[in-house]
Write a structure and sequence with these properties.
heterodimer, A: 357 residues, mainly alpha, ABC transporter involved in vitamin B12 uptake, BtuC, 3% strand, B: alpha/beta, Rossmann fold, 6-stranded mixed sheet, 17 helices, 32% helix, globular
Chain lengths: 357, 502
């Protein structure tokens, strides 16, 4: 007899179980798709693996992709610690990029690197922060659902950015291509050892450590976690829930804004199409795959980065659409939530119950 | 005695590593009331849920009329004439009694005959209820009657009652006992899950006591002339004192005074109106009432969590209007809330972390008080565990893994360390077993040596054991304040709770 029953207590390693079930389910979904496209799944996965691990250069691209993902992952995790859904990391990233480019191009064009980099970073964080405060205020004052507002504001941000680099900020010497002029060299982030890995990567790691300790060691972090876990207890204890909505979303937006900065100052060196490629949404998967633990966010961001880089290999080596990696990404999230839900049950397989008296 | 109607043999059930039931043998006979006693977590409800088809046993058999049967759903159990009245009624509040019953028994009678059948069943067993009323209009006692009628219309032979008196007023309890008596004389088999000893002595023919998943005894009640103390000892496995030692404490200055205090209930239930009373240091003032008579909103407003609309409140010598009080910030009031699982504690956090919930001021450190002193919090948590005999492995255990009694002691300990002038305890022993209840009573009695205590409860025995003065709340109003030492007056409390002023 097979019985499925709800667990009385959650599994000890529920997070790890859910994360590994996500990987397994994504792997199986991939097998089905590859087989359907007439490619042996093993060949396809080997091609992906080769693309990621064949050279230092290849692997460095994984870290390049992981850098903005760490920031957006932290942004989503910050909000989700209080059970707020920030689907707007994409728009906040865009505003971070706009503020970074604007500051570097127009506010301090002639300044030294050691001064301009911190200023550009602060500007991008502020850009993301202000943008995230709009849904935060609506939530705190009018109880407007933040999932909708953060999501919809993404489109506003992206269209405004396009307006800037198609219109007033377009590079006069750019032969009509959409995009701003290149930002001054002083505002370029340092790159390491001939790769495209920039200062943004260690900065992202630092932010992860900062968020970890902020949540664990500060009064603010304690209150945020309590509100996230049991809002009635927070009200009983007299915590200012609305105030926390504002500060949590502000920090979340600041992280996402910095993702825009590392993209503009570390990769593109200008504002152009290709800044808003979905890192904000990917951050949701990064954060939940990491079980909202800031220290695990870099690991899951690298995992997702590897998936993207491997996906590009499918296209160039096997001629398969690279969007397969998007399907695998979706399967990861699906598998994660399935794993979380199923982890709450036990399955017992036993013979006919016997008299035991 | 004739053959048993239903027998359990070697029934075992595990939840993870815990044995909820372990090789239980039980016989139930027709025309008898079988009391199933035990502390919380002793496995009573699990055992009966297995019998009623809600859980399936890991091992063992159920024998009905001499044949082995297996119930894998409540419907299957009802086919065999076994039904249960749960603590939380399974009724749809916005529908009428008849509609609710049609949902479950409609198939059997057809929609047209249901009304007729309800009236007939109600009359036969003395279960007065109006089929046209909607469930939310009914009192708890009436809702319970609907549940009983439901089972009877489905021809249940074995009726299991899970803590049936916990939501009833004293007069409703008496009425229920009459109904149970009638059911017994009609040859039904009644199982009464309870931890109230008086009910057992009043009603039961047979008695079974469970302790930690095992059946300790199961026999007719005449077999031994058992006293309350004996029963209690069998339940807990050691001697318990049922009378609390109440030390004389000198009454001091007035700590809290309400004058014409009125407000909406922000927390559900009715509003409270024109409430006036005062509490002095050194006394326990009780507000007793059946749940849902405005006490929840009143307590929440006194604790400053929600804002009252009118009246004044005087705390520690300063008088505030209702609005000022609601807006003033952190206040020196300790408060043990009714909902210990979702308000008083955070299940997924450690005991140490839970110790900070209302005491963050005490743990501020570093960076202009922005950091949290986790070491001190953990140390305080560990000390509370020792001082209050809280049974856990360590302070790192998650609060959600504690039993109700241990969790309540954690919350009580935390609120005690605030050294407040006023201590509010809301339903502090609801659902707790005897030994945990006694521990908590002792703490509350100690507490009044340093503070004024406001006890809000629906448990008459608790009020009579602890209080110095008793205020009875009904329909949002404080009907009367009675001196707990005046025994003539105290007898009226039960009637007052039902809104009867004589």
């Amino acid at each position: 007899m097979i019985r499925v029953e709800k667990r009385k207590e959650p599994l000890r390693y529920q997070g790890a179980v859910a994360a590994s079930s996500a990987v397994v389910i994504a792997f199986l979904v991939g097998c089905v798709i590859f087989a359907g496209l007439g490619v042996h799944p093993l060949t396809a996965y080997l091609a992906m693996g080769k693309g990621v691990f064949s050279s230092v250069d290849a692997f460095s691209e994984v870290l390049v992709k992981a850098t903005p993902l760490i920031f957006t992952g932290l942004a989503v995790a910050t909000a989700a610690s209080m059970m707020l859904w920030n689907i707007g990391a994409e728009g906040q990233l865009v505003w971070g990029g706009i503020c970074a480019a604007g500051t570097a191009l127009f506010l301090f064009p002639g300044m030294d690197a050691w001064l301009v980099i911190p200023l550009v970073l602060a500007a991008s964080a502020l850009g993301g922060l202000v943008w995230s405060l709009i849904p935060a205020l609506l939530k705190a004052k009018l109880k407007v659902n933040e999932i909708l507002t953060t999501l919809l504001l993404n489109y506003v941000a992206i269209i405004y950015m396009e307006h800037l680099f198609y219109g007033p900020w377009r590079d006069p010497a750019g032969f009509g291509f959409p995009g701003t002029a290149q930002i001054p060299e002083a505002a370029h982030l340092v790159r390491f050892a001939g790769t495209r890995i920039s200062l943004g990567f260690p900065l992202a790691l630092l932010c992860a450590v900062f968020l970890f300790y902020l949540l664990k060691k500060s009064i603010w972090g304690y209150q945020v976690l309590v509100i996230g876990k049991e809002q009635r207890a927070a009200r009983y204890a007299g915590f200012n829930v609305n105030g926390k909505i504002l500060t949590v979303m502000a920090l979340s937006g600041a992280f996402a804004g910095m993702a825009g900065m590392v993209e503009v100052c570390g990769i593109h060196y200008r504002l152009q199409t290709g800044l808003a490629v979905g890192y904000g949404y990917d951050g949701i998967i990064v954060a939940w795959l990491a079980g909202l633990n800031p220290l695990a966010v870099p690991i899951t961001a690298i995992l997702l980065g590897a998936l993207f880089v491997g996906g590009e290999q499918l296209q160039s080596v096997l001629g398969l659409p690279s969007s397969i990696s998007l399907i695998l990404e979706g399967a990861l999230l699906f598998g994660l939530f399935a794993g979380q839900a199923l982890g709450g049950y036990t399955v017992t397989i036993s013979g006919r119950s016997k008299v035991a008296s | 005695m004739s053959a048993p109607v239903i027998s359990l043999r070697g029934l075992s059930k595990r939840f993870g590593p815990v044995w909820a039931n372990r090789e239980v043998d039980l016989d139930l006979y027709s025309g008898r009331v079988h009391a199933l006693l035990g502390e919380n977590g002793a496995g009573k409800s699990t055992l009966m849920s297995i019998l009623a088809g809600r859980y399936s046993a890991d091992n063992g058999t159920v024998i009905r009329h001499g044949r082995e049967v297996s119930f894998n759903s409540p419907a299957k159990a009802l086919d065999h004439g076994v039904g249960m009245v749960y603590q939380r009624f399974m009724l749809i509040e916005s529908m009428t009694v008849a509609e609710n019953l049609a949902l479950t028994v409609g198939k059997k009678y057809g929609r047209q005959d249901v009304d007729h059948e309800i009236r007939q069943t109600a009359e036969q067993y003395g279960l007065a209820v109006d089929p046209e009323k909607r469930i939310f209009e009914l009192s708890m006692g009436e809702r319970q009657r609907v549940e009983i009628i439901k089972l009877l219309m489905l021809d249940a032979e074995v009726l299991i009652f899970d803590e049936p008196t916990s939501v009833l007023t004293p007069p409703e309890v008496d009425a229920l006992f009459v109904v149970i008596d009638r059911l017994r004389s009609e040859g039904k088999t009644i199982v009464l899950i309870t931890h109230k000893l008086e009910e057992v002595l009043k009603l039961a023919d047979d008695i079974s006591i469970m302790r930690r998943g095992r059946l300790v005894i199961s026999e007719p009640i005449e077999a031994r002339q058992m006293s309350r103390q004996q029963l209690a000892r069998l339940m807990v496995g050691r001697d318990v004192v049922l009378r609390v030692d109440k030390k004389e404490v000198a009454v001091g200055e007035t700590v809290l005074a309400l004058q014409g205090f009125s407000g909406d209930s922000h927390v559900g239930g009715p509003a409270f109106t024109d409430v006036t009373f005062e509490i002095k240091k050194g006394e326990i003032f009780s507000i007793i009432g059946v749940a849902g008579n405005g006490q929840a909103g009143l307590v929440s407003a006194i604790a400053g969590l929600t804002r009252a609309e009118a009246g004044t409140i005087t705390f520690a010598g300063t008088t505030y209007t209702a609005r000022e009080w609601g807006m003033a910030g952190a206040r020196e009031i300790a408060y043990v809330p009714e909902d210990r699982y979702h308000s008083g504690s955070i299940a997924s956090m450690s005991i140490a972390d839970n110790f900070g919930l209302t005491r963050l001021q005490a743990y501020k450190t570093g960076f202009a008080g922005m950091l949290l002193d986790r070491e001190k919090m953990a140390a305080d948590g560990s000390r509370a565990i020792r001082e209050h005999n809280i049974v856990v492995e360590s302070g790192e255990d998650r609060a959600g893994t504690l039993s109700g009694g241990n969790l309540q002691k954690v919350i009580l300990a935390r609120e005690l360390t605030r050294n407040a002038k006023l201590f509010i305890a809301e339903q502090p022993t609801q659902g707790l077993d005897i030994s945990a209840t006694e521990d908590i009573w002792r703490v509350l009695l100690e507490c009044r040596e340093k503070a004024g205590v406001l006890l809000v409860t629906g448990d008459l025995k608790e009020v009579l054991s602890l209080s110095d003065r008793i205020g009875v709340i009904f329909n949002g109003r404080l009907l009367e304040v009675i001196d707990a030492h005046d025994s003539d007056q105290v007898d009226r409390v039960g009637l007052l709770m039902a809104g009867v002023r004589s």
